[in-house]
Amino acid sequence: MSIKEQLRTLKENWLLILLVLMVILVPLFGKEVVYSLRQSAGMYTPTIMEESLGYQRNFIADAKIGTTGYTDSFAQGVAERKITTSSSLSTEVKRGTFAGAETQLKSIVTSTNSYFLSESASRYGEGRQSYLTGYYTIKVESKKYEVIAEQLKMIGKVTLFSQNKDDITEQYVNQEIELGVEKQRLLRYQQMYAEATVIVDKIDLNDRIFEQERRVKYLEDALRNADQRVDYSTINVMLMEEQSSYATIVWVKFSNLVRMLVESVNSLLTLLFVVLPYAVVIGIGLFLVRVLRKKKK
User: Fold this and answer.
1) Burial of 105 (0-12, 13-18, 19+ CB in 10 A)
2) Which of 95, 91, 90 is nearest to 131 (CA)?
3) pTM of the predicted model over 0.85
4) Options 2.60.40, 3.30.70, 3.40.50, 3.20.20; which CATH number does 66-170+232-241 get?
5) 20 to 30 A Cα–Cα from 256, which one of 183, 195, 235, 244?
6) Which positions ≥6 away from 215 have C-beta within 8 Å?
7) What are the residues facing 137 on neighbouring strands?
8) Buried b vs exposed e over 23-41: b needs ≥16 C-beta within 10 Å?
9) From CA 258, how far away is CA 264, in angstroms rounded?
10) pLDDT tens-digit series, residues 141-156
């Protein structure tokens, strides 16, 4: 068969060839085409798996192991810095050893004269898929923080450790200055009250003294709280029992199979409607070519 005859055969059977190509291309590119169409039309909604993966990527990026940061607050010339420290530790222990690991954690807290701000343990799942997880907020003396953190890391396999340090020296110094000013103001009000002779003035000064005493107490409490945050560091610990290797093995649900079938049919229909206009244009073009050739003959 000559080349001209082959080309003639292809032109006469172009629709059949197009259908064959569509059958081949749909499994390969149908999903991507539908995704692009839905996204461009504002109809695309991420699946649960896509949202989960995106969340995991953001979580890992935001909580990298061993990070340490300081704020921009700075008080120049102050030798004794006021630095607060907090950290988060996630550790995994082998199945069946959660109780022993929790006992070890509590022993570390007790032996170092630290204390719990909160503690809780919960069981998730059922049967062989169940596992225990504990959440603990611990206050430790800042001078013992590094040693205690290392001891806690040895309880199990560390899956996450993030640390944050804040220099609050400037804020602390400013509050000290403000407290001194407010105390002087309170002293003046008290002197004026002692010297006042008019009842109305005494009543007014008494109200001012009351408000000023509240202001002084507020600043004193703020400084006391800042000292406690500097003297005691916070460690948030998540103790998780290792999940069973069979935990994620599940039979596919019939509803999922039906959903995938519907999605495949929708993808095929969408692709057909995308390709159909081009097929019509090509068909009209070939028809016109045949007509012109017949006229020439």
Assistant:
1) buried
2) 95
3) no
4) 3.30.70
5) 244
6) 182
7) 118, 236
8) eeebeeebeebbeebeeee
9) 10
10) 999 999 999 999 999 9
